[in-house]
Each structure stands twice: as C-alpha cells, then as structure tokens.
Amino acid sequence: MSKQVNVKVDAGVSMGVQEHLWRYIGYDECNYTYIPEGVELLKKFAALEDAPYYFRTHFMFCTGNCHGTYKFGSTNIYWENGNGEPVYDFTYYDYIIDAFLKTGNKPFVELGFMPKDLVDTNYLRPTGGDWENYAQYKEVGWTCPPKDYGKWHDFIKAVASHLVEKYGEEEVKSWYFELWNEPDIFYWSGTAAEYCKLYDYTEHAVHEVLPELRLSGPAVTGIFEGGHAQKFFRFFLNHCRDGANFCTQEKGTRLDFITFHVKGGGFPFEMHAPKAVPSVESLVHQVKLGLDIIQEYGYQDCEVVLSEADPDGWAAGGIYDNANMIFRNTEYYATYVASTYEKIDQLSSQYGIRVRPLAWAFMFPGERCFEGTRTFTTQGIDKAVFNMFKIYGSLGNEKLSFESDGTKKLEFLKEPEIGVKNHSQYTGEGEDTDVAGFAVRGKNGEIQIVIYSHCNDRDKVEDQKISLMVDGIGEKEVKIRHYRIDSEHSNPYAEWVRQGSPLFPEGEQYDAIKARDGLEKLCEDETAAVNGTLSLEFSLPAHAVSYLVIE
Q1: Chain centroid to CA 299: how far?
Q2: Locate the Glycosyl hydrolases family 39 N-terminal catalytic domain: which residues (predicted)?
C-alpha cells in the first residue's frame, strides 16, 4: 500500500525562531545518575550540539540506603537527632547535582519526596506495625505531608542555601525547580489544599534565599475533561492567583512557570496482553486542555514544561511485563516522539505559550538487552529514539516555511475526547498515517529538513512516496545528505534480532549490534545543480524519519 505525499520547503521564507523544546529528560531512579552507565548517557546528551539538557529525577529527598532500584531512590539528605533537631547530609544529593553539571548538563530540580523524619504519620494507613519499620516508609511514607510545615520551610531553605553556596547564584538561577510529582494521585497522600500549603511554604523558603530562582508546580497527571487532574490543576492555579497564602496570609502565591504531565496511554503488568498502542492524539489533546486552563486563569505568559510527556506511563516496565512495550525498542518510539513534539510545537505557536516536553526516559543498569524499558540506551547501545535526539541536537534555530499535504492537522482537537484512557483495546488500526515535519536553517547556512511518518498502529505497512520541493535556494550547486531512522537504519534493534536476540551479547555479536546504533545515511551523498528549486523523491515507510541536510 502506498500514497503520494507532497512536501514543500521555502528556504527564502523565515518563520521565526525554532525553539529547541526537546532539551528536557527525566527518570525515577536518582541514584542511577552518578553510576558509570548513568554518567555515560549524560555525556552523550552533553555532546549534542544544542546542549545543555535539563534532567529531572524523583526521590531526591527520600530516606534509604542511597542505592538505586526500580521506581525508588534516596539520598538521606535529612534526618533528626535524638532531640528532634534536623541534621543535613548533602553527600549523595551533591553526587547527583555534580553528575549533571560535570557532564555539561543542567539540573531540573524536583523538590521531593518527604524524608522519613519529616513524615506526618497520621496519614499512614493503620498496619499494626511499628512506624520504625522502613518498609512502610518505602511503600507510602514518602508520599505524606510534613509533620511540621515550619520544619519543611527550614529544610527547603537549607537546600536552596546549600545549592547557592556550592554552585553560585548565577548557576542556580539557570536551573528549573519544581515541587513534587503528580500530587493528584498516589505520589501525595494529602489533599489539594495541603499541596497548596506545601507549595506556599516552599515558595517562601526558596525565594528568601534566591529571589530569581524559578519554581513551578503542580506537575499533575494527564488532564482529561472532568478528570481529577483537571480539577486539581484548576484548584492550584486559582490558589496561586487568588487564594490565601498559607505561609504569609497574603493573597496569592508566586508561580514562575507551570508543569503538568501528558501520556499517550497506559500498559500495566499483563503478561499476555492483547495488542495495544499509545495515541498521539490523546497526548496532544491533554496538552490542549492544560493550555486552555492556563489561559483561563491568566497564566499564558508563563513558560510551560510538560515535565513528563511520553507514549505511556510505566517507564520501568518492559516487554516481559507487557508485550506491547516492544515499540520502545524500535523506530516506532522515535516516530512517536517526532509526531507528538511537532504537534506540541504547533500548539505552542497557536497559543503563544512556550511549551517544552520532557521525555521520561534514561537507562537501567544490568537489564537484558532490549528489555523494552523506556530508555535511550540498552547495555550501552543507543536505541532508535536516541538517534531522533541526535537529529534534534544538530538543528539550527531559524525556522523555515514547511508544508506537507500528508499531515494530521490540529483540527482533530476539536473533537470532545481524543483517544481512550484505558488503552487495553486501542490498537490504532485503520488510522491514517501522519506525514509532517519542519525545516530550519543550520548554523552554517545549510537547509535542514526533518520529515517523519507515524501511524499509531505499530504494525501498519505503508510506503509513502515523498515528493519534496525546496525553493529559495537560488542558482548554485548543492550537496545533499540524507539520514534515516526506520526498521533498517539507525536502529540497532533490527541487528539484535538478526543476531538471535541475545540477552547479554558480547564479543563480535555485541560489536555488530553496537555498530548499528549511530545515525545512518539512507544513501550516498549527492550533488545537484539547482536553478531556484530542488526536487527530490524518495520512499518513506509508515514509521520512519528522514533528515536531509542541503549544503
């Protein structure tokens, strides 16, 4: 099955600045940051041309043994002595911040979760056990409000003071700070009002130390019409605008930027799950609903970071938990990112609000090769999705005119509800393929064109015949480089399958897989004499990204 798609780029028409909105990464396990595998990946991001990248991670305040495990981490930053007096230990907290900075990146500092000695145990479910039982803290204690908001205020002030003293005001001003994560669900055992109270004390503390520090909230989950996250989001923005400040008793609370989360689906533990796929439309629709609320409360001048923006919600789950996670190993993940980020960029322009998606993906040490977790690398091998970020990182900042008659336009957002919250039956079958992209002028004047093809149905087989016209070049000879991500290019997963899908490849087998993890060319470089317009034709599968550089 094939269809003709016409793409037109006009290099003579500048459309303004192309925001590098993709420079945001996150993950749960904070202790993976400074281990060798984590540092190796951080260095790969720092090596991208548009670095630094901003990194957000959970559990930075938690109590534990400071050894990373799935969905948990700890730093032991705070404890109390026998007299109930606070004791601060920044050793492991600094390991994490130092790893970001020493590799050439920046922290996106998440302020959470609750240290064990600050937990208000009244929020714990009765278990018949002793609160000193650490398992109860690890299960639920870290989600609780503080036993003393004054002590929380002093703790946050101590953290901010330490960061400013160690790294300097100018450096810390360049970071992002965010309070908590998804307080509308199980990450927070308090109410929406109690989250607002926590925010008020936090805001007062950090800005006492550094008035220019950038603080945000509320980092709620996906916003669906009439859903709990939507109500929580409105409650928080209304409090910041008009509410009584719990800390100062004045009206309102300062909010420097805004965060919320968007996901394209959810795939729980189900070993024999029927086919299900993430939805681009559902994710983008959640972005729209969030931006509508931001406008409603008059915060449209604030920057918005979608501090988790992903195809699905369980980063640590893999193909052995739910077979549908297979898409994370393949070119599908790369084209899903390309499609959602391009649509988010369109919404950003349409609303006049700066919107930045954050990819909640990193790496897991010791996993089986191509485990299917939401990662950029597996056993040190760069996955296809990371090659998408290599493309992003190489791009210039001047947006050029780009049109495609194969794009799914944002008109789909006018429908009352896009996608489904329960993706157990959603396969994407029968949907049209989205063929779109954008063009920019590179740092040295070259024309850089990204054209992606994505269908929610991961099994769709289709061959788009791309007819690309590039105007505004003038009369000159050009060199054309054509890079590709698809099932056979920039995609080491295909080579891993050819090698017999080894769980722990080594020697020549590993080398063969690793050799295919870079950004690969579709064809040999070409030269062409252009008289105003360059015409190119090529095929694009249903899940693929073409990156053309015209010098």
Answers
A1: 22
A2: 66-514
Mean pLDDT by 10 residues, the chain (551 residues): 90 95 98 98 98 98 95 96 96 98 98 96 71 80 97 98 98 98 97 98 98 98 93 98 97 98 94 92 95 97 98 96 97 98 96 98 97 98 98 97 92 60 74 95 96 96 95 92 97 97 97 97 93 93 98 95
Whether 142 and 62 have beta carbons less than 8 Å apart is answered as yes
Alpha carbon distance 212, 174 (integer Å): 9
Dihedral angle sign, alpha carbons of residues 96, 101, 104, 107: positive
User: Structure tokens of 99?
Assistant: 């790893």
Name all domains of the chain by residue range, CATH numbers in brackets.
4-9+401-550 (2.60.40.1500), 53-256 (3.20.20.80)
What are the two backbone dihedrals, phi and then psi, of residue 463, each rounded to the nearest 5 degrees? -125, 105
CB under 8 A, 24+ apart: contacts of 510-518:
510/379, 513/369, 513/381, 514/380, 514/381, 516/490, 516/491, 516/492, 517/381, 517/382, 517/383, 517/386, 517/387, 517/490, 517/492, 518/382, 518/387, 518/490
Q: What is the set of active-site residues?
A: 182
CB neighbour class for 4 (10 Å; exposed up to 12, middle 13-18, buried from 19): exposed
Helix (H) or strand (E) holding 408: none
Q: Are 146 and 198 in contact (CB under 8 A)?
A: yes
Buried b / exposed e over 437-452, threshold 16 CB at 10 Å, is: bbbbbbeeebbbbbbb
